[in-house]
């Protein structure tokens, strides 16, 4: 079932056991726009089946928030105009050259061009894929793009992100709803999970430009502004405590600055910023 955020904004919940991110839907008088296209054609079909249960305008546009497979592998299913930023378009080009039979998938995984989880999901959810080709995007934008769905504007914008260098967000000003994709997360480099410290404040500034009342991160349920403010606050206080690759020193600095122990979230973030210090010093 779709979650209803307002009369014109919905989303399909993420499903961690299937590596499925949350998928967004914005409806105007004439058309609908989706945010992210699913991790497989089956995920896309499940989303379309839920959309079909409601009396909504046809899906005309699909925005891909970044070039991670779990957000775009379902994009062929919608027959929609696919919208990506320039960097996402560059990254997707490799996926358009791929073939998707078993031996090709195994080759891409063994040469680190594809995540093993992606192969597993495609094998499971897409039995018939020997002739599959990923479509190419239709609209490639730079910086920002506004789409009017019929008395419903969507602002599509590139932002700084600690997750990838190709992050796009979608803001619906009428409803003050912000779709963040995975932009607020960290990333894994050489098997080390880290959050790029130098990008944290610029990213938060990019995101807080919007006066969002509700925000959806790619692998979360929707958050109100108080929950998001807490998330950014915890990230910032964790980052402030990390000035070297020493976890013990960072924890101590946190205690001195905040006069309390870090929460579980803050400790997780502190470790990710320490990892970033390690990666940056290599
Ligand atoms: Zn991602």
TrEMBL record:
PANTHER family: ACYL-COENZYME A THIOESTERASE MBLAC2, METALLO-BETA-LACTAMASE DOMAIN-CONTAINING. This is MBL fold metallo-hydrolase. It comes from the Bacteria. Residues 20-219 form the Metallo-beta-lactamase domain. It comes from Metaplanococcus flavidus. InterPro entries: Metallo-B-lactamas, NDM-1-like, RibonucZ/Hydroxyglut_hydro. Pfam families: Lactamase_B.
């Amino acid at each position: 079932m779709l979650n209803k955020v307002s009369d014109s904004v919905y989303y399909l919940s993420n499903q961690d056991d299937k590596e499925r991110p949350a998928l967004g839907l914005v409806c105007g008088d004439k058309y609908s726009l989706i945010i992210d296209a699913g991790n497989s054609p089956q995920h896309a079909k499940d989303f379309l089946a839920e959309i079909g249960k409601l009396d909504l305008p046809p899906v005309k546009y699909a925005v891909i928030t970044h070039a991670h497979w779990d957000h775009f592998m379902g994009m062929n299913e919608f027959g929609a105009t696919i919208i990506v930023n320039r960097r996402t378009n560059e990254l997707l080009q490799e996926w358009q050259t791929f073939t998707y039979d078993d031996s090709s998938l195994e080759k891409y995984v063994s040469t680190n061009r594809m995540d093993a989880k992606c192969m597993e999901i495609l094998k499971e959810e897409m039995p018939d894929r020997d002739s599959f080709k990923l479509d190419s995007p239709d609209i490639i934008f730079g910086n920002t793009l506004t789409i009017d769905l019929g008395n419903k504007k969507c602002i599509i914008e590139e932002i700084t992100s600690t997750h990838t260098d190709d992050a796009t967000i979608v803001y619906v000003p009428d409803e003050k709803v912000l779709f963040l994709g995975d932009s607020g997360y960290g990333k894994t480099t050489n098997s080390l999970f880290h959050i790029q410290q130098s990008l944290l404040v610029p990213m938060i500034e990019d995101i807080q430009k919007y006066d969002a009342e509700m925000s959806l991160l790619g692998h979360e349920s929707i958050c109100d502004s108080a929950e998001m403010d807490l998330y950014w606050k915890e990230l910032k206080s964790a980052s402030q405590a990390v000035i070297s690759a020493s976890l013990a020193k960072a924890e101590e600095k946190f205690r001195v600055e905040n006069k309390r122990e870090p929460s579980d979230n803050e400790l997780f973030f502190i470790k990710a910023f320490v990892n970033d210090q390690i990666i940056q010093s290599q």
